Every structure is written in structure tokens, then in C-alpha cells.
């Protein structure tokens, strides 16, 4: 546009917004069909004990192969799914599929499934978890649920009640992306987490930068004080892994240790823990 007037700018902006809204609506329509159309799958990324190198479990990560758009990243479709409520269906699909695949492949060990804050607004969530375990036959000790700080923010009392119910099934619960939200030390103490996952944004400089190293030490100190093991996310270099080992970080996950892959494409080292 050679010349623009304020009115033209507004029109242009409006048209662009309309396009964005239309695009999201179309994405949501397609997402609704995705499970039935067989376009969803789970990839698994291994989690490793830094001390022994043993595989302690795998995180299940949702993938969407769209017929026209190709691969759509969860960073793009999870927010759409949450805004439209479709996450309830997708989340149940992920939970059920992870349990079925874990039963079929014992070498997955413990599987970690991500839960959205939206799923915690459903009072039936603990019952759903119990049903899926019963229907698939996965031992509860092989399931871990990952929740983020935003889940705890929305209704702490009710969330705590639901977490207790879920844990009473024998399922473990991990705090995901720790360090990116607003949870205080009091939150960590009040909620019955079995694991703290330190967000990957801290990782790249842990081997080289004093501040990053100090944050790692502080989080490990909190974990030790509360008796909760810490897993470091986003480990991409052996220098970072060495630092984690030196500092006594129990577990790690990241491209260095293994990319997320379909279950048939995973390789299971002999050292991996036998499933109970
Ligand atoms: P998350 O739960 O924190 O998962 C870890 C993300 O980090 C994954 O991205 C993983 O592929 C990526 N990652 C792993 N190792 C590395 C590394 O070394 N470097 C870097 N840069 N990244 C690494 P992904 O698969 O794209 O998923 C993004 C987010 O989408 C997840 O973050 C999670 O919040 C959400 N998500 C994925 N699957 C599900 C699901 O089934 N349900 C829900 N509610 N959310 C999901
Ligand atoms: Mg996660
Ligand atoms: Mg994470
Ligand atoms: Mg993340």
C-alpha cells in the first residue's frame, strides 16, 4: 500500500484479525475430527537417571498430522484446543492412548502424560483417570501426570483436593516447567508433587553461566529440602549433563538423551529398568 490513512489502517488491521480468527476456527474444526481421522499420535521422550544412565520413564507428547497443513506443533494446537474446550477430548485421548501403549510396551516404564488446566475444571477428572487405568489395565505406579503452575493458580483448594484423589489411586504427579510461572515455595510445599521438572529455559547456560548455575542449585536445594527429586528438561549438550550430575540433579530429559519418537521407533538400552 503506497499511502495509508488511519481509516485504511484500521480496515487492514480488521481484515487481518478476521483472517486470524477464521484460521483458528478452521483449525479448531479440523482438530475436532483429528482423533477420529487417525491424525493424532503420541511420541515418547525418555527420561534418564543422571547417576546411572538408566531410563526411568518416558514422557508422552501429542502430535497432529494435518492432511493439508502437515505437522502442526502442540505449541500451536494445544492453545486452540484449550480455548475451545476440545482439550477435554484430546486430553482423554492422550491419557487412554498412553496407557494402552504402555501396557503393550512394558519397556516404556513409567509414562508421563501432560494435563491441561482446563481438565482440572472438570470435577470428574480423578474418576476418569481411575476408569482409564481400570479399562486399560495399566498399574497406577506406571502413570505420572504432569501439571503446570497455571493449573494450581485457578482454584488452589479444589486442585489440591483433586490431586490428592488422583494420588490416592497410586498415580504420581509432576510439576512441569518449574520456574516459568508464579508458584511460590509455599505452593510447592502445599501440593503433593513427586517430581519437579525444571524448565528447559534454564538449561542452555547451566554449564557456563554463574546465574543459571545458581538457579539450578537453588531449585535442587528446594527439592532436597522437600524430599522431591528434580528432573532437568531440555538437556542438549554433554557439558550441561555433566553439570547436572555434578550438582546432584537426579534426572534429565532432552535431545541429547533422546528425541521424542513413536513407540515403535524407540530403542530401549539394556540398562533400562524392568517394569514392575
Ligand atoms: P512440555 O510438557 O514441557 O514438553 C517438553 C517439550 O520440550 C516438548 O515439546 C519436547 O519435544 C521439547 N523438548 C524436549 N527436549 C528438548 C530439548 O533438548 N530442547 C528443546 N528445545 N526442546 C526439547 P513439544 O512436544 O512440542 O510440546 C510442547 C508442549 O505442548 C509441552 O511442553 C506441553 O506443554 C504441550 N503438550 C504436548 N503434548 C500434550 C498433551 O498430550 N496434553 C497437553 N495438555 N499438553 C501437551
Ligand atoms: Mg510435560
Ligand atoms: Mg515441560
Ligand atoms: Mg514446556
TrEMBL record:
The record places domain EAL at 24-274
Which superkingdom heads the taxonomic lineage of this protein's source?
Bacteria
Q: What is this protein called?
A: EAL domain-containing protein
Organism per entry: Teichococcus globiformis
Q: Which residues of the full protein are shown?
A: 500 to 775 of 775
